[in-house]
TrEMBL record:
This is Peptidase M50 domain-containing protein. Its main location: membrane. The keyword Membrane applies. The chain crosses the membrane at residues 195-218, 238-259, 271-290, 302-326, 338-358, 370-392, 413-435, 455-473. Belongs to the peptidase M50B family. Residues 78-101 have a biased composition (Basic and acidic residues). One of its GO terms (biological process) is proteolysis. It is found in: Membrane; Plastid, Chloroplast. InterPro entries: EGY1-like, Peptidase_M50. Residues 290-413 form the Peptidase M50 domain. Keywords: Chloroplast, Hydrolase, Membrane, Plastid, Protease, Transit peptide, Transmembrane, Transmembrane helix. It is a multi-pass membrane protein.
Length: 482
């Protein structure tokens, strides 16, 4: 009985598809299904552009790695050299490397002045770890309020050594105990290289162009069914989809960046370089913070100002689009599997189907307003950016809520899960490449990693992470017909 009913639904859908194609002037091809249309759409210049971007990014990555491997060997001459000349050249290289290490190391006089910064009322240092990169770590016991202790130590360090060094109260990744990190001030000012700036600019511009192209092309697969009361031709539908979705997409992205920059400015910090990886589907928006952030609460606000604001706007557009998806406003026709790709979208569509949404006779197609489509796509984009990876807003959110140690653990687990999910989808491979690329550095450490955010920020952060999981997970097949 189930096989017979499924066959009847397929016959009805084929007849409706044929009638609608003839009415809008499309070619009749009953053998053309969803996957074939998808393959044909990928042959457009938008699909070629997305594939070209991936290939260019991978080539740049391996060229950079090859250049770094080849650069130390540039001094080798093609002509043969005597053993004496080779020994002299190697001794000069070793002497130069030793001089560079000595220049990077903190002088003993400054190190002695740093030890005088601590006191019984601030921090009792028991161990000192010095590196060749100009970083000194002091392990010990924190005394009193972390914020007051940090202010006293910063003022003492500034009075003794000026603005040469920056003092941060960090969390030990091994045992989560407080540590004091003293770093050269220039190391905490991230300035992107020309190669990274050029790479991010090219990829971001191409992403915006591809986003506009995807929003302006109306494939024949979206015209397989039209509501009976919709008295609009194909040209009107194409114009409505182009103007609405393109303006909304660009507007949401621009508002997101302006809002995040404003939040960072209020906390006396500065955002670094952005790179948009939107072609091929919702991808990560990689960003960096170029100046130190004072507290974990400030880092939380900056993270929420990016992906959090985009998630809220997307959910509002999703609900408004479902409310407007009536007979006269269902300008886009999608299969019902489009809303079942997400657990949250599936539940919202089931509640809205009884009163708002318009469906075909067999229930396989659904009419949607452009607001709902933009809301679903950007909610997925916001959820991808809430993944707990270091270069995404999700990594900053987890770092602000749970600390450095938990953030590192969740980042490793997320990388493992993305690697396991990379087989059926190229999107996760792209995310893995982008977040571990040689073009990017991790954010600078916080000034105070010990003080936790308040309960309100914690509740908001947990709610956002739960929404992201509900959006990224598909709706189980057993729940679709409840």
């Amino acid at each position: 009985v189930e096989r017979h009913s499924r066959k009847n639904r397929e016959d009805v859908t084929a007849e409706l598809r044929k009638e609608v194609r003839e009415s809008v002037g499309l070619q009749d091809d009953e053998n053309e299904d969803w996957e074939v249309n998808k393959e044909k759409e990928s042959q457009t210049w938008g699909g070629k552009l997305r594939r070209a971007l991936v290939l260019i990014a991978v080539q740049l990555y391996f060229l950079t790695r090859a250049y770094r491997w080849w650069k130390p060997n540039v001094s080798k001459n093609t002509k043969s050299e005597s053993p004496k000349e080779a020994n002299e050249r190697q001794s000069k290289l070793k002497k130069t490397e030793k001089q560079e290490k000595e220049l990077r190391k903190i002088p003993a006089k400054d190190l002695a002045a740093m030890r005088c910064v601590f006191g019984s009322e601030t921090f009792f240092a028991t161990e000192c770890f010095e590196s060749d990169t100009g970083i000194v770590l002091f392990a010990g016991n924190l005394r009193g309020n972390p914020e007051l202790a940090l202010q006293k130590m910063e003022s003492r360090l500034k009075n003794r050594l000026g603005d040469k060094y920056e003092l941060c109260l960090i969390e030990n990744p091994r045992d989560s105990r407080p540590m004091v990190q003293v770093t050269r001030a220039e190391h905490l000012r991230i300035s992107p290289s020309r190669l990274a700036f050029a790479f991010s600019s090219v990829v971001s511009v191409c992403s915006f162009i591809a986003l506009a192209e995807l929003a302006s092309v109306l494939s024949s697969r979206y015209m397989t069914w039209v509501p009976p009361t919709l008295n609009l031709d194909a040209a009107t539908i194409i114009a409505s989809r182009t103007s609405t979705m393109t303006i909304l997409a660009w507007g949401i992205l621009i508002f997101r960046e302006l809002f995040q920059h404003a939040v960072a400015f209020l906390h006396k910090s500065k955002m670094g370089m952005y790179i948009y990886l939107l072609p091929g589907g919702p991808g990560p928006i990689i960003s960096s913070i170029s100046t130190p952030v004072k507290t974990r609460s400030a880092l939380f606000d900056i993270a929420v100002g990016g992906a959090g604001v985009m998630l809220i706007i997307s959910l509002v557009l999703l609900v408004a689009g479902f409310a407007l998806s009536g007979a006269q406003n269902a300008l886009l026709i999608y299969p019902t599997t489009y809303v079942w790709k997400s657990m949250l979208f599936g539940f919202v569509s089931k509640f809205a189907a009884s009163s708002w949404l318009v469906q075909s006779l067999d229930g396989t197609m659904i009419g949607l307003h452009p607001f709902s489509v933009v809301g679903m796509e950007f909610a997925t984009l916001a959820s991808v950016n809430l993944l707990p990876l270091p270069t995404l807003d999700g990594g900053r959110l987890v770092n602000a809520l749970f600390g450095r140690r938990t953030a590192i653990t969740l980042a490793r687990v997320t990388n493992l899960l993305l690697l396991l999910a990379a087989t059926p989808s190229r999107l996760w491979i792209w995310i893995l490449f982008a977040t571990s690329s040689e073009f990017w550095r991790l954010d600078v450490p916080l000034k105070n990693e010990i003080t936790e955010p308040n309960s309100f920020r914690t509740a908001v952060g947990l709610f956002m992470l739960i929404c992201a999981v509900a959006i990224l997970l598909p709706m189980p097949s057993t729940w679709r017909y409840l």
